[in-house]
Amino acid sequence: STQSTWDNKTLSMSIFIVCGLPGSGAHTLLRHSMDILKSSVNYEYVRNESTKPQEESDPFHDRIINFDEFETKQESGEYLIDYEWLKSTYGVPASLFQHVNKGKKVIVYVPVTAASKLHAKLTGQRSVHVINVVAPMEMMAERLKNQDKRESKNALKLLKKIGNTPEVELRIDSLVQINNDSTIQA
Questions:
Q1: Which pLDDT does position 150 carry in this prediction?
Q2: DSSP state of 156
Q3: Could you tell me how many helices (H) and strands (E) the chain has, helices first?
Q4: For residues 107 and 16, is the Cβ–Cβ distance under 8 A?
Q5: Nearest partner of 10 among 110, 122, 105, 121, judged by Cα
Q6: What is the separation, in whole angstroms, between the first and last Cα of the chain?
Q7: What span, in angstroms and rounded, lies between the C-alpha atoms of 63 and 65?
């Protein structure tokens, strides 16, 4: 595994993929990071597009579009990758390169199951770093129980299906893993 050099040159042309299982705290880390970075013109958070129901939308993370629009964009190559997650379809916009080409550091969230796919698509393009937020299974389940969303119920079912092995193998050279056993609340 190669080690990344986190110097100004590397970070000046970086794409950061933040990922984690439901309840790990990845969204919370992302929200707090973007609150801190929002005054910086050097960072851009790229929102995914999703076909999930409008009532489950989180404008911070996703731009909701209908399935026909999604399919049209998918067929015209407007997504770097697309993936299924919790009974919805998502796409990571290829337009993220517009921000990178302007010299911005790009941050994008995907579930841990899509991180390797996105990383593979970006490898060789720019300096790509994956930040995987992990937490104990019991803690993730407890956090999800405290959320009042249908999506949380689906995520809880997913965690039960995974069982006691929340680690999803990421075959990525530049990986930072954050153990969120209590520091970041989901």
A1: 53
A2: H
A3: 7, 9
A4: yes
A5: 105
A6: 30
A7: 6
Phi-psi sector, 163: left (phi>0), alpha (psi -120 to 50), beta:
left
Q: Please, which residues bridge with residue 26 across strands?
A: none
Residue-wise pLDDT tens digits, 33-85:
888 887 777 888 888 999 987 666 666 667 889 999 999 999 999 999 999 87
Residue type, 45: Y
Question: Token pair of 67, please?
Answer: 């399935």
For the chain, give the number of residues.
186
Token output for 53? 């129901």
Contact 20, 132 (CB under 8 A): yes
Read off the tokens for 120: 């593979």
Spatial separation of the C-alpha atoms in residues 1 and 134, rounded to whole Å: 20
